[in-house]
Amino acid sequence: MSSASTADAGPGGAAGSTTAQVRALALVPLLAYAVLTQLDALGNRLSAHLPVGTTPLLLGALVAAAGAMLLLPGASRRLGDTIGARLIATLFCWAVFCWALSLHRSEGLSYLGKLAAALLPAFCLFLIADTPARLRATLWAIVAAGAVSAAIVLIEHHTHARILSTSVAATTAGFEGVARSAGGSDENPTTSAQMLLVSILIATAWLFSGERRWRLPLAGLVVVGALALVFMSARSALIGFAAGAGLVALGFRHRGFFPLLVVGGVVALLGAVPFLPPTLVDRFTAIADFGQDPTLYRRISYLRIGWDLFQQSPLWGVGPGNFPLYYVTDAYRWMPGREPFPRELHNTYLDAATELGAIGFLLFAVTLGLALRSAWRGAGNSDAVLRRTARAAGIALAGLMVACFFMPHKDLRYLWLIAAIAIQSGRLASRSGEAA
């Protein structure tokens, strides 16, 4: 019997039946969260006439499900021995400490709420997704959401209409007069593209890891998703996709056809350039000509201002959510491309160092490093489900971490959800090794 079926099997009789029902029901809000995080525009429409939004409802359901799982035998011990959970909790506590020392506390408190909403599901996942099959189901929910979002992007690109998105951030973004689709999200198109990136990389990892049963649907999602990323004109997501695809290709480095695979990939990439949308080509060529894309001046200013603020408070930073308020101060009014309204620092890692200081950055980096290491450990497990799940989570996390160099995403929900899946896969691999 596999580790998944062994873990799911409970004691016989009524007690075992109740345990199975609790475990099955607890998985529902986690899957809903994985889907509606990327399709948040759909969630916003569903809750438009409700007194409570979709996010609070999902978080409440997740907490209730995790609480129910805590009542099962051994659950509290399994959560307590998770170093990842302790690191995430320590990071949030440190963010609260930095907030207490910050200048702009009201804005910081609002940011802490968003950070807590991103971190809380990770704790719930450690309790709910306690088997390889449950981790795999969560990844499938992310893949399904990506398939829907990618389809919406293609439809919107063809019809020049908006299907689900209603927010200003999602509907007004454009480049050179061409509107950019945000798919099924109300986030800005770049953030939406990075969430779609996670779905595509999971599908890519599974497609090339021996997944035979769902090969055609996965291949279809990779193709459609890659096209959607192209039409979304998100440079950071495409760079992250290239990094993730490179990691998948490295998995074949010991095969005789690996050099041919590399050459074929380069030729295919160069051959696709003439067929790419002019907007996307212009966004990449603008990197060498800042006059073509003035936002690049602003991105350089983000980095310069962030580094200056970090030097002023290197240990605990300026406080969570405080960078945008410092950005608009007179001290930086002559920075090239600086705008007169608050903007976030578009580099997740410098953003963490600037707002949370060196200690906060260290906690952030160690947590993500642990997630990658755990995924590597899980990818070497003998259980096929766990091995493929860990590999997919690790590749998706690595690609997203590359993309995060260009966006302020230390509170991105998919970042922490994928990191939690990676950490959990390593825990399950260690547990199965101890059992063996």
Oligomer: single chain
Contiguous helical run count: 19
Overall SS class: mainly alpha
Rg computed from alpha carbons, rounded to a whole number of angstroms: 22 Å
How far is the first residue's CA from the last residue's CA? 13 Å
Question: What's the SSE pattern?
Answer: HHHHHHHHHEEHHHHHHHHHH
Low-confidence stretches: 1-11
Account of the protein in words:
- With 436 residues, the chain is mainly α.
- Helix content is 71%, strand content 1%.
- It has 19 helices and two strands.
- It has a two-stranded antiparallel ribbon.
- Strand 1 and strand 2 form a beta hairpin.
- Helix 2 crosses helix 7, helix 6 packs antiparallel against helix 17 and helix 15 packs across helix 17.
- The protein is globular.
- It starts with a helix and ends with a helix.
- The N terminus is likely disordered.
